[in-house]
Input
Amino acid sequence: AEAGGELEVVEEDLTPAELAAFHAALESEEVGRMVQPWVPWWTLEAARDVRLGPRGLSLIEDVSESEPSSSRPQPGLPPPPSQPLLPLSALTKNPPSPLLPCILPQLLYAYCYTLRRHNGEPDVDALGAGETLLMLWPGTKDPPPPSPVHALRQTLADAVGSGRGGAPHAFFVAVVGDAVQLLRLGRSAVLLALVDAARMASRARSAAEDLEDDAAPERMRQGRKAFVRQLAAVEKKLVFFLAWANELDDGTLESLGDGLALFLEEETANIQAQNEARQRPPATPVPVITEL
Output
């Protein structure tokens, strides 16, 4: 298939023999050596320095080139919002729900997981990235979580249960660390993540809307309209969360991240204990001596 002037190959384009050869290359790590590892933007030094204005836009200061401002858009980071964020009071007259701090880590987990699953390039497969994002997106019909830790534990369980790509459990736990790190970076980094997730959903929705029924992947031919509606709901939800998160201070988000860090340490310790148990040599059976 051809998209955006570039040749795009999906599994349906391969013969059974070609598909088997591809999976064999994956298992032998031959493909992995050809793919450059992606560095998550929230691990960059620029992510620690970025500062957005009160309405979520970049702060542009008149400084000399020899003294670059940390407020300017930084290479490797997602672009900030292109329009001023709405105040929360323009979206609702009700006070913010106490569940919002529970849901925010789930949104960040879904975003980070999607980027990691697509090696930081969700645009290469916008539809697939949209499916990945929706897979972990918290639904309105889900029972309200009693705490942020309970919420993130459920999202982690959903990710592990999805069985996508046969990733090890440590991979899913590492994404918990991504969400924690974003929260600890504070308001500006959280806004960049949320607006990037909104763009990701928008591109996936546009790609689905532009598909002809006969050109749509087989998995999407029956549910394409529902897929578009779900992505539109994601975009709408993110408009609300952007407005809400924009009115939080760095300390509030850092405290939320610190609380979830304890959960991360617990999960990491469990993985380490399991690895150590697997590496232990099996116990030697004690011979049984019977009298004749």
